[in-house]
Design goal:
By secondary structure, the chain is an alpha+beta fold. Helix content is 34%, strand content 26%. The protein has 8 helices and 11 strands. The chain has helices at residues 3-30, 43-46, 80-94, 118-122, 162-173, 181-194, 253-267, 279-287; strands at 49-52, 57-60, 70-72, 99-102, 127-139, 154-158, 201-208, 211-221, 236-244, 272-277, 291-301. Helix 1 (3-30) packs across helix 6 (181-194) and helix 5 runs antiparallel to helix 6. The longest helix is centred in the first third of the chain and has 28 residues, at 3-30. It is globular, with a radius of gyration of 19 Å.
Length: 303
Amino acid sequence: MDIRKMQRLIEDNLSIRLAAQTVLVRGEDRAGGGEAPGAGQGKEKDAPALLERADIRAVYAGVASDTFNKAFGYRGGVPLADTVAAVRSFFGGHGAPYTWWLGPLSGAGDRAEQGEDIPAALAAHGFAVGEVETGMYLPLADAEPDAAPPVPGLDIRPARDAAGVADFAAVLAANWNPPDDEVLRFYRRAAPALYAPECPATLLVAYLDGQPAAAAEVYRTASGSSPAGDATRLDVAGVYNVCTLETFRRRGLGVAITRAALLHARGAGCRHAVLQASGDGYRVYARLGFRDVGRFVECAPVA
């Protein structure tokens, strides 16, 4: 597979996963399992929304957190200033913080259509570059996820109920100090959809001696070239939110739960694994066989 196809798998998986956040929360709202009366700022303001245009996709997930609220890519076709105005209007209408992610095929690097570096161009529109991550690809046939050395007392299992989703959310929210309440709120709202058997997302929680210690998410999408001509087969596994509570770090949990995510994906019929690696995670993923295929840049509005 050539590098542009690998990049396309990563960008498509990320973009579909972001858009699916609206479905997760809307499913909870339709089920009538919302928060206690008085929570949030009203149903209309909390309702998730998707902006889908030829030049941009943007997602408001119904919470006040740029962890979930994202614009993704820049497809060109209209002046960048017009796209910026649409993104600002969309998130401004919800009073929501957000960031703008750009991948190697959608603005962060090789822009054959535009001939410009979009993160740099966004600086003129009041944005600054934040995180820069590495897109990585692994063919799961080449993976050896079951070769991990055992960690005494470690039990990794998928979240199959509200309590499991809450454990996942607690580990993820602890990346902020204090823990991010909006992260916890999103997962409370999305929990019924997330543990439904048909959900393409699987949340994994690592328990060490019975305590939630690490987490990872697997999100499955179709590549468009799935086996036996089945275009609906979910054969791409995006690995997200790999994190370990500070108390449990340097015990091999990050490697263990990443391996578990790959094993789960392969068992679910996936042929490709993709992710975006931070600087700290890059060495772990490279050791597991992932290949560097391009950069992803996060831009944040500062004006």
